[in-house]
Design brief:
With about 525 residues, the chain is α/β, with parallel strands linked by helices. Helix content is about 30%, strand content about 15%. It contains 14 helices and 21 strands.
Length: about 525
């Protein structure tokens, strides 16, 4: 079929569940759905191209004798800057120990101490050592490999390597399948329900630690299907991306600061001096501290010299390898760092079962807004959240009524537009520090590409428009023209809301100062 032609058809319903995305969220959901038939749609072969595989920190879980889910939940709420839902935080934290046990049963080789107990690390804004890790700083890769092996052993899961291009709906408007594309040809995949597990948005920014495919396509698919997007403005910038010119930028895990690394400028002065929490402050605070130092013309480094640098090959082998590739010896040289787009707290608004506002459509992992992360994700809560919601989604999906005939609307080929131009716009106008003028410019530029059908631009437009509408500074969203906080509230937007804001900001119209 010609990929440039309109695409319209109607197909009978199918009992399969379609999971789009093959990081930890997609794999865990597919496994939890067994023995129901699942088709796992992935843009690349399993184990390749997911942010999960790059996760260095670990999985937060209250496993220590001095810890409890209530303490973990309290830390999560504190980091969320007023927008974390406390009941969600407690529910997810309470699931943590059981999820670690589930991974152990799948033969995940977590690091252990001399006595054979799980080795627990400390990360910023955690009040206890509760970071469960594998391979030092290789947790994401090792957990991903564990889940990929489990999927390979599960007969009810079939894997389809293709790109999801649109969502199909039945006559009632319920999501009833996916339009996929492979080798330039489009085809239909009807299903009882669709679970989006498509990851984040980091690759929309010029500086990012995410894979190049992390452009928020799942968010665009959901918005075009009528789903509500929530808190899209909250993009977390990891403070310590290694600034050696690579794209994507390699990451120096936050756990390094938990083990004693410090942030310094080129003179050796501490960058976080006088800031509450210092080097172990929440990520948004550290990212702004580094951003402000860079804006003053300083260079910023992560200082691991001495004993920590000497231990790095064993304790942090991934970072040690990245440093070696860049010609940096962390025993004697500080590591140049800067903030980079890392994690998206916003996403498709879902309930406690992972269900969106559109019947038949669910979301899991970074693409979802569950109420856990609020305005600023607590370190190592992302893998935990994805695994916690997977069984809850599986239970809810099992109760979804079979849809009617799956219908695809006529769809012209969507454009990729100038991706690098989009990345520069978001980096400059919707980055660590924002203001009304820059965000207005971003909305105007991104709306043009979004109207032309570019999914990346549509997701970027949602980020910029939500940031413009939030006239305060909170968590990862910092407005230099509105540095104060007001009463905490979520932002919610539909596709029609985005078009209305873009129309109101067209050049020549009277624009109310935001």
């Amino acid at each position: 079929m010609n990929a440039h032609a309109p695409f319209s058809f109607t197909l009978p319903a199918s009992d399969r569940i379609i999971v789009v995305g093959a990081g930890i969220a997609g794999l865990a959901t597919a496994l939890r759905l067994a023995p129901r038939p699942v088709t796992l749609v992935t843009a690349a072969p399993l184990g390749i191209g997911t942010a999960t595989g790059w996760a260095q920190g670990g999985i937060a879980a209250a496993m220590g004798d001095d810890d409890a889910p209530a303490l973990h939940a309290a830390d999560t709420v504190a980091a969320g800057a007023g927008l974390t839902e406390s009941d969600v935080a407690l529910r997810v934290a309470a699931a943590g120990p059981g999820l670690i046990a589930w991974l152990v049963a799948l033969a995940a080789p977590f690091d252990r101490d001399a006595a054979g107990a799980l080795a627990l690390g400390l990360e910023a804004a955690h009040s206890r050592r509760r970071i469960v890790r594998a391979g030092g700083d290789s947790t994401g890769r090792i957990v991903l490999e564990t889940l990929v092996r489990a999927v390979g052993r599960t007969a009810s899961i079939s894997v389809l390597v293709a790109s999801a291009r649109d969502l199909m709906r039945d006559s009632s408007g319920a999501v009833a399948g996916v339009i996929c594309e492979r080798d330039g040809a489009r085809f239909a995949l009807p299903g009882r329900a669709v679970v989006l597990a498509t990851g984040g948005v980091g690759a929309l920014y010029a500086s990012t630690t995410n894979p190049r495919g992390a452009t928020g396509r799942g968010l665009a698919l959901a918005a075009r299907a009528g789903a509500i997007l929530r808190d899209m403005e909250f993009v977390q910038f990891h403070p310590t991306a290694i600034a050696t010119g690579a794209d994507p930028m390699p990451l120096a895990t936050e756990a390094l600061r938990g083990e004693g690394a410090s942030l310094i400028d080129e003179t050796g002065a501490p960058v976080m001096a006088g800031i509450a929490g210092g080097d172990l402050a929440p990520r948004d605070v550290v990212a702004r501290g580094i951003f402000q130092a860079l804006a003053r013309g300083a260079r910023v480094f992560l200082d691991c010299r001495g004993d920590l640098g000497a231990r790095m090959p064993l304790r942090f082998p991934t970072v040690a390898g990245l440093c070696a590739e860049a010609g940096i010896d962390p025993r004697t040289q500080a590591i140049p760092v800067r903030p980079a787009a890392h994690y998206h707290m916003g996403g498709v608004k879902v309930n406690g079962s992972g269900a969106s506002s559109v019947a038949g459509l669910f979301a899991c992992g970074e693409v979802a807004s569950t109420g856990l992360h609020g305005a600023n994700r607590l370190a190592s809560n992302s893998l935990l959240e994805a695994m916690a919601f997977a069984p809850w989604i599986a239970e809810a999906v099992s109760g979804v009524a079979a849809p009617g005939y799956a219908r695809a609307e006529p769809m012209e080929r969507r454009l990729d537009s100038d991706r690098e131009a989009l990345r520069r716009i978001l980096e400059r106008q919707a980055g660590v520090v924002r203001d009304a003028d820059g965000l207005t410019e971003a909305v105007r530029h991104l709306a043009l590409a979004a109207r032309a059908g570019c999914d990346a631009a549509l997701t970027g437009l949602a980020i910029a428009a939500s940031a413009l509408s939030r006239r305060e500074s909170r968590g990862a969203h910092w407005r230099s023209d509105h540095p104060q906080q007001v009463a905490p509230a979520h932002t919610e937007m539909s596709l029609s809301d985005l078009w209305a804001m873009a129309d109101a900001l067209e050049p020549g119209r009277d624009v109310v100062a935001a």
